[in-house]
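PROTEIN DATA CARD
Card holder: UDP-glucose 6-dehydrogenase
Chain length: 397
Origin: Gossypium trilobum
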Amino acid sequence: MVKICCIGAGYVGGPTMAVIALKCPNIQVAVVDISTARINAWNSDTLPIYEPGLDEVVKKCRGKNLSFSTDVEKHVAESDIVFVSVNTPTKTQGLGAGKAADLTYWESAARMIADVAKSNKIVVEKSTVPVKTAEAIEKILTHNSKGINFSILSNPEFLAEGTAISDLLNPDRVLIGGRETPEGKKAIEALRDVYAHWVPVDRILCTNLWSAELSKLAANAFLAQRISSVNAMSALCEATGADVSQVAHAVGKDTRIGPKFLNASVGFGGSCFQKDILNLVYICECNGLPEVATYWKQVIKVNDYQKTRFVNRIVSSMFNTVSGKKIAVLGFAFKKDTGDTRETPAIDKIFNDMQKPAFVFDGRNVVDAEKLRKIGFIVYSIGKPLDDWLKDMPAVA
Ligand code: NAD
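Structure generated from the sequence above:
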């Protein structure tokens, strides 16, 4: 029986391994983490993360071919394939601070694998890492390998939080990068066999290591770039009387462009887009490509501009000061799946209790602005024709 171990029981490691366990009953899957609290939660009835469908998958497999443990070294030593899905945040200090990915957790995981391994292993980069990380990891693993053979693969994860289980069950593609050597090809095949239990083989893309590593950063940069593009248009819509939803609809009907990721909003959030683009910018700079770095940096600048613009709109509408005023934030999560306020009856209740004039600033264009206006609210919706009040109180960027 093939044994898989995944280091890092987070938003990626937990759901990904649960789906592998579900689809591959002949594979033993252990998810390990240094955080006792996280592992305890994975072993309880209240999982540490919420994803639609995750509970059912975990309940089906836990105790059969899926386990969660803090005994990291034991499970790594026993496994044939080790996924590393630890966090790779933006560095806060030292060389590349504020941009480069912090690979501290990755490095310590790699050193531990090298220390405890007693048999050949395939080590899979599941975390999002800078292109060329596999080269450094290989050096760490082979430096102390006692004759053990390590094959490194890059298998970046494209799931989106909120739809992780359906993304994993039915992925647009699975990407596997490896060395173009006989050992590298064998390792690619071994991992492809795992995914082939449920993913059609034409959706399993095999590339060299660097293409796989870079593709993840490129995909997130392209997705974020679409958000910043439509958000930049939303500012122009407000200035001209155009409606950003109508513009996005018309633009997205072009099959070369497509309709997805064209919703104007208060900007992208979450743990990945900003971190990965900053990382991409840093890699471009390090490779002597300042023009390319500047191009991608602009995606983040527009995102920051959109957030600032939204806040300025709030402050200027309320007579340029919010001191002493109470502001309620509805929908604090970064995804509509968890922060949807449509049709909530609470909004009418709220109006009666509010000081007048009462405002709603909709950063995701999810509330029914017309209904709210009928109740008496002044409503600001990003990229939409402005209420008279807002026209009289122009926001300063
Ligand atoms: P996370 O912070 O939720 O989980 C990482 C886990 O790794 C933590 O529980 C931490 O305790 C554990 N860990 C760190 N060092 C360890 C070590 N040495 N040994 C054992 N456990 C260790 O992170 P995440 O959201 O799952 O992201 C993981 C990686 O996947 C990141 O590189 C991220 O960029 C990437 N990614 C994330 C998403 C997403 O939607 N969250 C999607 C695709 C890719």
